[in-house]
Amino acid sequence: MGHLRGEQSFPDAARGALADSQLRRNLGHATTTIRGKRAAVVAECDDWEELRLAGEALKSSTMARLDQHLVELEERVTARGGVVHWARDAHEANAIVTRLVRETGETEVVKVKSMATQEIGLNDALAEAGITAQETDLAELIVQLGGDLGSHILVPAIHRNRAEIREIFLREMPGVDPELTAEPRRLAEAARLYLRERFLRAKVAISGANFGVAESGTLLVVESEGNGRMCLTLPETLITVMGIEKVVPTWQDLEVFLQLLPRSSTGERMNPYTSAWTGVTPGDGPQAFHLVLLDNGRTATLADEVGRAALHCIKCSACLNVCPVYERAGGHAYGSVYPGPIGAVLSPQLTGVEDNASLPYASSLCGACFDACPVRIDIPSLLVRLRAQHVDANRGGVPSPEAAAMAAASWVMADHRRFAAAETASRLGRLLGRSTGRIGSLPPPLDAWTGSRDLPRPPAESFRQWWARERGQGRARERGQS
Amino acid sequence: MRIALFVTCLADAVFPDVGRATVTLLERLGHEAVFPPTQTCCGQMHVNTGYQREAVPLVRHHVEAFEPYDVVVAPSGSCVGSVRHQHAMVARGAGDEALAGRATAVAARTYELSELLVDVLGVEDVGAYFPHRVTYHPTCHSLRMLRVDDKPLRLLRQVRGMTLLELPDADQCCGFGGTFALKNADTSTAMLADKMRNVVASGAEVATAGDSSCLMHIGGGLSRLRTGTRTLHLAEILAATA
């Protein structure tokens, strides 16, 4: 499946990040800044909600006929001199790209920032074949040089601050100015010098795609730095890996998405660079173009009538920036190249929920992600649905303590007499916390609560007892007798 | 108006004062409060933890308990959210379209407390007196699932003697999230820590909200840290008089 699955469960993986005060500061600062920027540019649009509805509708209708749109895309790309390849999974996609690079005779490629190639672990696969893949997006470069993993869809190095980046550059960049400071301008200049040499040398580039327009066979990459455009225009061969869900039927659809995407993702009215290319154009740009259409779990997700909404994602990362869980635990805790709320629904769907069983629970269901999503993916509802799928997959056999407790609670609460009896029994809890009126420690598993929170002491009388005594039938009878 | 009180299982068992305050408030405004005695729990905990099948009998039970009433109120945004957004879905998931239809009808007559007061009963000044410094936490489900908007604040602004203080980052989740607080205790605690810092920074003596569950979380943390700040449900403040 590639890089969609972590080795640890979310709660375990989050623990380290939560204790890392520098990381918490970096994340808190960055997400707060980008939240503010996004809110300001969204507020400028009078028709933002209509745009979101349009985005949602376009995605739904595209998914309903995805097969036809993909075939049309293939026909148009081929007609314009491109070659289309279909990859069922990460392994196939990596094999195709590796073969294509080998056929050029090159051992070095430059890359445009791409989630699809991250997802399939392309750089590792190329390295095994003796091919060096150079990331050219600034944040991806920082992550690559630092021997690190990205932790954010849009800003992979969000967990790093300027001082850390300076250290990475000094350590890993050959020929870097030893007097380099942590000033953003100086850091950007160092990266620019380092990358410029590689752009000019590269014969092969690998990109992803934000959109693939079926009616014309056009691919689009949307970016901020222009490094992508260098890769898309200078080399002789261009290989694009695109998830099959990225297709849009017509050029007109871009009218909606090119408004939604930059505002949601970088908090800009319009992104600085939008590059579009259609097949090959003699004498201009790459003279060989390959498009690899990647499934890797997407058709299985598409088969799920409700769950397929996760494929509507345009990878803007607005949900990450507003998520209180992401802000504290960071992106690495999700164990997937797709972190945050959308990752928590997308990764388990792409891999099968049992392969990422802790992710659907990595949310307090606060709903901020749904509000922020430019294509209105109801992430909280999808998470709840995945939780049910996980529970249902584990039915039969000896029930877990949690399943037993839930079944017991359901039985008790399905009848008010049983519930009232349970309330009376719970009053035994009054034996605890007698001196303070609060319960400060409980045995496992409830110590997960009392580790950081007191629990109120159960009251002497439940509401229903009070009601029966004061307003209920008991009192009515008294009234009748008197 | 005759109003059925869905007190919620948590308020019934742990915070009966919230239920009593709701009754006091409705009666003071001249309405009749009734407590359908067969009610138990909306099943939100089951649904949100993945036990949808176990939630089916609870949804049926809830619908049967509240079907006879024209107006239902609950002092909880999240339980009303569950009734409105989950009950029909759970019934449908179990293949029971008839129950889904009945659940939808009950949901349409079920209101969160501030919605009932402002939208249905048309009052903002409920005649309360509460001479304390108070800050309001808009709980996630009230805010984003029910869109109660500033209704609770409009009610609080009319309370005599009270100083209403702004809560920094008010719309951020407190980290409760039901079983999330147990399954992801560390992350939940980190979210709670920030919420408590903001409550304390507001300078309030009392933090209020429309959900006992979130208040149990925030109050549990404030008490553990001996902050000297306490929590009270919105209903308790609105029911207070001189």
TrEMBL record, chain B:
Single GO cellular component term: cytosol
Domain of life: Bacteria
One function term, GO molecular function aspect: oxidoreductase activity
Cysteine-rich domain segment(s): 3-82, 134-218
Name under which the protein is recorded: (Fe-S)-binding protein
UniProt source species: Pseudonocardia broussonetiae
